[in-house]
Amino acid sequence: MKANTINPKISRRKFVALSSASSALMLIGCVPSTGKDKVVNLADGGVETALNQFISINSEGLITLYNHRPEMGQGTFQSIPMILAEELDADIRQVKIVQSEANSSLYGRQMVVGSHSIQSEFMNCRKMGAAAKDMLVRAAAETWGVQPADVKAKNGVVTANQSGKTLTYGELVAKAAKLKAPENPKLKSVKEFRTIGGSFPRADIPLKTDGSAKFGIDIQVPGMLYASVQRSPVFEGKVVSFNQEEVLKVPGVTHVLKTSRDLFGNREGVAVLGESYWAAYQGRKALKIEWDNRGLDKISSETIRNVYLKASKEPGDVLHEKGDADRAIRNASEVIEAVYEMPYQAHVPMEPMNAVVDVRADSAEFWGSTQNPNGTRSYLARFLNLPEEKVKINYTFMGGGFGRRSRTDVAEEAADLSKKSGRPVKVIWTREDDQTAGPFRAASVNTCRAVLKQGKIEALEHKVVAQEIRNQSGSNNKAGRQLMGGVNTEYAIPNVSVKGVLQKHHVPISYWRAVYHSTNPFAHESFIDELAVKAGRDPLEFRLEMMQDHKRFKRVLEIVDQVFNWKDKPEGVGRGLAIAERSGAHFAMMIDVERNGKGVKVKKITTVVDLGICINPDTVKAQTEGSIVMGLGAALYGLTIDKGAIVEQNWHQYPLLRIGQCPEIETYIVKSDAEPDGAGESGLPTVAPALANAIYDLTGKRIRRLPLDLEKLS
Amino acid sequence: MAISFKLNNKETSLDVDPQMPLLWAIRDYAGLTGTKFSCGIAVCGACTVLMEGAPVRSCVMPVSAAAGKSITTIEGLSKNNDHPVQKAWIEAQVPQCGYCQSGQILSAVALLERKPNPTDDDIDNAMNSVLCRCGTYPRVRKAIKLASK
Ligand code: FES
Ligand code: FES
Questions:
Q1: Would you list the DSSP string of A235-288?
Q2: B3-76: CATH topology
Q3: What superfamily does domain B84-147 belong to in CATH?
Q4: What's the pTM value of the predicted model, to 2 decimals?
Q5: Across the interface, do A210 and B134 touch by the CB < 8 Å criterion?
Q6: For ligand 2, atom 4, which residue shows the shortest CA distance?
């Protein structure tokens, strides 16, 4: 039995039945919804019964597990069902996995950001699985007239201890569904786990090797028009006029309309709609638009840089303080200082942004790749002035997200155009649109200052100068704690001060994989390395000494030392180290580089990561590999702005890392019984600093400004 | 005027603008969505299909250039996901988001046709312009080696 599909039709029918009768018990993670009287005849044969919103079983014994988190490559399509299957005692290789509907009253928050899914769902999903198993066990015990303690469940079968009689989950489910769901089902001990911790093959992978996986861009709806939108190259430029009549003459073009989307301010564009994408795109090429750039076409990367460098001299707002770093620095005879710079980055998931929306008289439906199904639903409800129940969200596999798809701006364009044209509309962005329109990862300048005393850090100040995602407009100019993400305050340093100088201007920024943890650690961990060098200390020993009271950092550092022989560096190799925490995961990274003609080549990247209980080790390894490749790309390439617009239009100007540049990658997962942390970004924060530190080790050249050019380092 | 070609071994005739890229003809008119749009300028490989067995970038190839030719997309590579390259891809658990993978797999199929036992350099040369934002490269390399055995 191997049937891993996304079948919105089945889930819709079932949950209509489920949600109508059971409102009081629908508290996510606390009380499983009871499956009482929720028997639905399914089109594909058998009677399927829901035990709760995550688990249903048909009379043939086929177990269906509902995954309620969108899948963008992170692998929760498999690992969330693994948690359910663990406590349910079902064989994960035999179940059917179905993507659930978007419904926050059934599933709580479904947004996938910050590597939170496993952390926040671990206990919820265990309870859901355990509650369903409890009901099945009680149903069996009742049938045989024995106590629940006298029967055992395993792999979808319940067995009576004494008589050895057996009943399958399929035979028991109708009866089990009539029982009350337990409020506090008994959970397994970590030692009893048989599914969690196993590298089970991912159920979505076969769908991605034969072309059958459906992404947002693949959705076709009857009567659908396609749209291509020319947005202002200058962020926040306004449409003055456009040649509507002329473009309407392009064959296949049906509408030429002004549109807009909300992304930290109103972003305008002109949309060309057509009977095919090609027709719409041809029409777009014929557009002549007059823009009012409102003076915003003066800024460039250089002007932004100069403003930030100047701002870094300001005192800034204190975000974290321990001891009195200001005084220690003021009174010191020698202060070590360094300035680090990082560029804007685009998310550029391989699947360009897109959305399909059908706005009808009194309802609306969305299909697409989104990290934020609940947000899309409430956004569209507000935008279209509809109650939420009238907005249906069909979320598909995503061709990458990296934070970009947590925004609802593309759905808004599609909704606006569907409303105006009266037809379902699929908006497809081009690669150029995606790369140049934003939102971006924030560029930043970090300044670090420190005082050394007898080979130890006596005081350290880290100042972050950047835009803040949560505060891009309005009158509050005080830096918030979001700005200091990734600055490691765990080192045992007596005087520490972290400061922020908030920048506000109209380049739209947003969450980019690991967010500020993708920038600030470059400065922080490079600076720790500079201080180790200055103090004449080994960079690992230097860090280890300051992490003696931090069990997890201490452990990952010790493993780098002992298992990966930090001090035993091969001839001709430069070796760099960095540590960081992200989404609860603690990791240490060691990068080896060697000379390559006039430049440097990255030879190997080793990561030691402690993220608590690991649901699927192979998925964690895949995520770490992906984070490293993305982090390395971000160290080597960046975006620039000129005349108020992004210069690099497509990948020939803003390259992604290629297979030939990808070093050997090894990931070591620390064994742990602690509750799971997030796996989707671990490794990314440490790549740039560990690389810069390795380059210093090899060449004596200190890199403080990204992107860096590996070809020019001699 | 309709343009005729063999698509996954089936005679196909599409009545579209001859200048329309093969990519959009396959996706929007033949209804096969396994071939993906990503860069649109022949630099990423997501739209790779095989034309007479050789990899081509369908985003920049007018559909008229396919007239009379035989085109294979990911859907036509095998009946049951059982082409040796697909099997190796599943064994190595290559895909993450999956979006680039049709292009990765078809590019690898073409490489292995030419070089049944590719070296690391051969792999770099053939696969260097097939991009993956999720960073599946270590596994792409591993899977190609598995498939070459
Ligand atoms: S979409 Fe054709 S090569 Fe990128
Ligand atoms: S698997 Fe996501 S782009 Fe390659």
A1: TT-EEEEE-HHHHHTSTTEEEEEEEEEESSSEEEEEEEEESSHHHHHHHHHT--
A2: Ubiquitin-like (UB roll) (3.10.20)
A3: [2Fe-2S]-binding domain (1.10.150.120)
A4: 0.94
A5: no
A6: B132
